[in-house]
Protein: 4-hydroxy-tetrahydrodipicolinate reductase
Amino acid sequence: MSEMRLVVVGAAGRMGRMLIKAVAETEGCTLVGAIEREGSPVLGQDAGLLAGTGLLDVDVTDDPLPVFAQADGVLDFTAPAATTAFAALAAQARIVHVIGTTGLQEADFTKLEAAARHARIIQSGNMSLGVNLLAGLVRKVAATLGEDYDIEILEMHHRMKVDAPSGTALLLGEAAAEGRKVSLKDRSVRSRDGHTGARNPGDIGFATLRGGTVVGDHSVIFAGPGERLELSHRAEDRSIFARGAVKAALWGFDKKPGYYTMANVLGLDRL
Ligand SMILES: NC(=O)C1=CN([C@@H]2O[C@H](COP(=O)(O)OP(=O)(O)OC[C@H]3O[C@@H](n4cnc5c(N)ncnc54)[C@H](OP(=O)(O)O)[C@@H]3O)[C@@H](O)[C@H]2O)C=CC1
Ligand SMILES: O=C(O)C1=N[C@H](C(=O)O)C[C@H](O)C1
Structure:
């Protein structure tokens, strides 16, 4: 099979730069485009120089249409409004769209599902192997322990993160809810303040910490009568997400249009 031609959108972002580097370092793919928003000071710069990998002869542009038309896939860690717009373009171009963007709302997911009729969408709140494995473990533990084990999900991220709870915390919450055979929407408690009353049995609680340069820490706590089980993941470097995203794109190259997750990519969907 020929080299997969990939585009990075949000090229100047924390993840955008990591993605450019990961594409440049991975066999079987090549960077053919780098997109930033209109007015960005990096427009016209070489993507490789921007990411610190050396010249790649790919200039950053704010016009995705001609770039998508020449590509096989797009790597997207940007913001919800940008991601839904890029998904429509990926559908038009019938290419792979790997989505790491978090903070997506129900209306955004509806748009992504519509785009997945023509694009191969691979979306996950966390592209690392460790977190996706953790989600499988959480599902199993939640299915094994009854409601007398309270589930609380704790996350900490860097001070610049704009959404909460994190996409990963929600992914882990979904795994816990699936294990319990309940709907996360009905059972999640996303904040507590003041006289909240006692905890309802079966609730799945979320707690958010923000500060410093923390890449991403997540713990799922099962607090039962007289004991506590804690399952944790600590991301030490953003390259784990970027490498996962490139792996997802290569996996999606020969797939049919549809909506996929990182669990499909990693073969963990039946864990
Ligand atoms: N799923 C996963 O494994 C991971 C997901 N993430 C998620 O990825 C997203 C990005 O994170 P991070 O890199 O830290 O954030 P940054 O803010 O550093 O990067 C986002 C980039 O996207 C750009 N952007 C926004 N809108 C557009 C647009 N319409 N067109 C082109 N570029 C655009 C931003 O430009 P500007 O600054 O001008 O707005 C910025 O350069 C977040 O949602 C985060 O939670 C992060 C790590 C791992
Ligand atoms: O914004 C981040 O940085 C991260 N976002 C993702 C999330 O919301 O879970 C993944 C990772 O934890 C880093």
User: Anything to note?
Assistant: The first helix runs from residue 14 to 25.
